[in-house]
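not sure who needs this but someone in the group chat was asking about Phytoene desaturase from Komagataeibacter diospyri so here u go. i didnt clean anything up, its just raw.
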Amino acid sequence: MSGHVHIVGGGLAGLSAAVELAGGSERVSVYEAGPACGGRARSYLDRHLGCRIDNGNHLLLSGNPAVYRYLGLIGAQDTLVGPGRPVFPFVDLADRLRWTLDLSRGRVPLWVLSKRRRVPGMRLAELRGLLALMEATPDMVVSDCLQPGSLARRLLEPFAISVLNTMPDTGSAALLGAVVKESLARGGRNCLPRFPAVGLSESFVDPALDHLSVLKAEVRTGSRVSAVEMTDGSVTALRLGEERIVMGPNDTVIMAVPAPVAASLLAADLPGFSAPDEFEAILNVHFLLSQVPVLTGGLAQARFIGVVGGISEWVFAKDQILSVTVSAANRYATRDLDELAAIIWNEVRAAIDPAATAPLPVAMPPLRIVREKRATFAATVQQDRLRPGTRTMAPNLLLAGDWTATGLPATIEGAIRSGHAAAQAVHARRGTSGRPK
């Protein structure tokens, strides 16, 4: 009783579902509205800089199971690189202090006993904040859990902002706690920093498209679904402009588009549909240097540094590109971008120069600013309650995306998990088994 699975959206959620289903008994088609797949996790040629850049920075961890399952299926598990130890360099610009968080490999957090390996100035009593996050109830915000002190200011608050893309006074403690449980609580072996050796597309998108092509799955870019027709509670057709794709009795639709797009297509006709409707921006600034900087110490090992006490949050060294991420960027929405770029460049110099064999130029180099106004849903208590599950009231309609109820914030890991969950729901509907875990 095979059918045709129509996946609307070619981001990582949609690609994950397609990879899980392709090669089985189902026909698989992916419809991507844009010119390329990948969503927020893709690379492109920037004509102003004259080089290829990622549209955003994503720091992954060795303990992200869905990420590594997906990469394994598409043969790209070796395209992520990173240090051989769970090390995270930091600089506090306000105090001109530098350190490297050096986690223990096992579950026992021996790192907290060493002043050389832990956050400077932290007190052991502050670790109660980590326990509080892991025990947080759904109605708690991050700031409810944190103990005042250096651990919160120099690690947990920046960690919360980057993971949730939401400020600690409104961000969901339960969502952050879920990440802590899957990373810090499992020990340093699960916290090895990982990032693409070349680019996001080279790791997550291009190998997936090659894999799907070999398995005869159809991927259509530039194919925007403009309407979803429903009759008697089921999807009967998809409209792509003038084209109308009629659903067969065994066909399934997986809606793997951003939350606002899903709401515009489904909310009027799908009983019980809900989705997050508040969003946070992410600001990325890519600086192109005239030559590759020679780095030393922990920065040379990790190839990134966390920044405390400034606008910048993370600086990634990617050959000649120094790429900066600013999360929860709604707070800077009214600031002039050129002014922000100048401030950020000075912060980059302060972060990088002490660990480089030669100082960065004082004059700001060529740059590209990418402001994603709706990068993720706002990971607040209220918005988390609006996240829907995989299944809907329509028996042949499933949902996927990092905005669905994955139990995680809007992350690559969550997006890929949602696609896997949708594929599993297709198999459950058919009474078939999916790929082995």
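also The CA atoms of residues 16 and 419 lie 5 Å apart. if thats useful
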